[in-house]
Amino acid sequence: MATFLYKLGRFAFRRRHFVALMWVALLTLAGVGAASAPVAGASSFSIPGTEAQKAFDLLESRFPGMSADGATARVVFKAPEGEKMADKDNKATVEKTVKVLGTGSEVTSVDDPFETHTVSKDGSVAYTSVKYKVSGMELEDSSKDALESAAQDARDAGLTVEVGGDALQATPETGSTEVIGIAIAAVVLVITFGSLIAAGLPLLTALIGVGIGVSTITALASALDLGSTTSTLAMMIGLAVGIDYALFIVSRYRAELAEGREREEAAGRAVGTAGSAVVFAGLTVVIALVGLSVVNIPMLTKMGVAAAGTVAIAVLIALTMIPALLGYAGRRVQPAGKKSRLLGGGRAAKKEGKPNMGTRWASFVVRRPLAVLLLGVIGLGAAALPATSLELGLPDDGSQPTSTTQRRAYDLLSDGFGPGFNGPLMIVVDAKASDAPKAAFTKVTDEIEGLKGVVSVSPAVPNKSGDTAMITVVPDSKPSSVKTEDLVHAIRGTGGEIKADTDATVLVTGSTAMNIDFSQKLNDALIPYLALVVGLAFLLLIVVFRSILVPLKAALGFLLSVMAALGAVVAVFQWGWLASLMGVEETGPIMSMMPIFMVGVVFGLAMDYEVFLVTRMREAYVHGEKPSQAIVTGFRHGARVVTAAAVIMIAVFSGFIGSSESMIKMIGFGLAIAVFFDAFVVRMAIVPAVLALLGKRAWWLPKWLDRALPNVDVEGEGLRALDEKRRDGDEDRELARV
């Protein structure tokens, strides 16, 4: 592989006009596609194989025309202090609003709160439910404008009016912190390279890669049902890995220049050596992201595949466009150890022979490996302790910022009717096989009314054929609480007895039940997913490092860092530690997909640093150095760059903590803290400590396995052979002249 990538790097350097034009053309094509495509909304939500989804599908077939997947809006009215909603003027305002809302072309039904008795006991709050023919993503702007206009007219009449539900889909805002994250990355690159030109190359290529990836996702969003969260995730991961991959190749290029090589040769060797690490690091990230498809949740699969595509683009750009841009930069990119004229007048950055920080740190770890190992493991173990109280759920309007109308509507409903009104359960009774459907519906209603935690049960609403009915149940607890989950399980528990007595099937659905089933499905898939992703990456790393213990150590170190990161997420978003600093307005259960998502993404990113750092060590060991000295050599060449890469990745992920979307905020924080733990504790401390304790055993591989594995040549042995051939050719030509 090293030889192939070496040739690719030299080709890109020589044919830089062609390479640059190709990537600019792809960026333009993707941009045009994105500009002409409709704006992405929230993707449709389905969980194949769950009871909630089966009930949802049953409603679609037995209640045709009800648009079970259509958008809903809850318009909540609150009377002025000291007044009641039933007062003449207030009632007239509500009735006028209901009439206006019912005229919408996409509206299927609007409830009158005075007819459906959706007025609070104290008479101060009322709400109407508006149902639409299409989903919130497909809802036309005119319908949203009409909804907001009707609410504003009621406000002007003196009522407090807020709108909840999914009809008003708010586009997530990342805020200025995302830009700050990129600015921090730029500063770190300038410090690392001592050159504005060299620092600008990784930023430029990362932005081009993310531009192509996100524009492609936007262009395909409508056709593939990709939500706005999909492109945000792709941008987050694409920026981080794009900068890092380019950083490693530019750093290796400057190191090759420092050894006296010509610029084209240095570009080829940089891509042949560091580029090999980039390919395998990228593969681990792609495996982890594509592996999310094993969960069998379409939304998660699309997010993973889209982000994996952006990572693949980042790898290709690093291998081709970076050497092309190095060709354009020419002598403006200085050899390692020198600064540009602007930042240092071209002087050497430090005295020759003076050990750098990476060398000094690695030497210390090699001398005290056991102490460093114990300190690192104990520290990460302590950080992971909060994860033992992890509670999972999905964010609802109650987790929105208090500045949004959805959150204010949520709070008004909780105050007026109780927290359960924000997450009613929909019971679907399939009595097609029953001899007495009406009796079955009555029995189900009676059974549910007798359960603990139920506030109210609506009368059964049968379909036209009378074989299926809907029953609405209001819990006494909020949607994301454990009590509501227990109630869902209790209702489902009565299904067996009802089935035996009446031959009717009881199914529980609705947004709350869907969220509960979603969480359960993710929990069930976590172990198989972990086994698949870690297993595939373990095999890949055996091929890269030609060792059994090094990949095993890498996987165990990853588990430490991901558990510590989950502990930090629980401490902030569930316990509320430093919540105000992070802009977390409402603590609660951790997003259901967070554990499995962090396992996938963090594993891929963790293996990045493992590959970049340890391949340098293996390269030194293969070339004849002792194991302890190889560790020091690996840190001398790689520690500064890996540190810079980690700081950049942390800065980029932290930039998304400023998002108004709670899911994006949590993912940004979780990935940032996970990279911090993995890069600075696991890879920089635990890894060299373990390798120092193992010695030569770290690089042991059974002979039969060594013969069976393909030789991918990450260390660049093929380039050494190429050098020897060139020297032999030069000697032959010299002898011919003589």
Q: Which structural class do the helices and strands define?
A: alpha+beta
How would you sum up the global shape?
elongated
Which residues sit in consecutive blocks of at least 5 with pLDDT less than 50? 342-349
- Counting DSSP H or I runs of 4 or more residues, the number of helices is 24
Through-space gap between termini: 38 Å
Determine Rg (CA atoms, Å): 30 Å
Main sheet: strands, sense, barrel: 5 strands, antiparallel
What percentage of amino acids are in beta strands?
A: 5-15%
Instruction: Give the number of DSSP strands.
Output: 11
Which percent range fits the helix content?
55-70%
Mean pLDDT rating: 84
Describe this structure as you would to a colleague.
The chain has about 750 residues and is α+β, with helices and mostly antiparallel strands. The chain has helices at about 1-15, 15-35, 50-60, 90-100, 115, 140-155, 175-195, 195-225, 230-260, 265-290, 300-330, 340-345, 355-365, 370-385, 405-415, 435-450, 480-500, 510-545, 550-575, 595-620, 625-655, 660-695, 705-710, 715-735; strands at about 70-80, 105-110, 125-130, 160-165, 390-395, 425-430, 455, 460, 470-475, 505-510, 590. The strands form three sheets. Strands 6, 7, 8, 9 and 10 form a five-stranded antiparallel β-sheet that branches. Strands 2-3-1-4 form a four-stranded antiparallel β-sheet, sandwiched between helices. A two-stranded parallel ribbon has the order 5-11. The longest helix is centred in the C-terminal third of the chain and has 35 residues, at about 510-545. It is elongated and about 90 Å long.
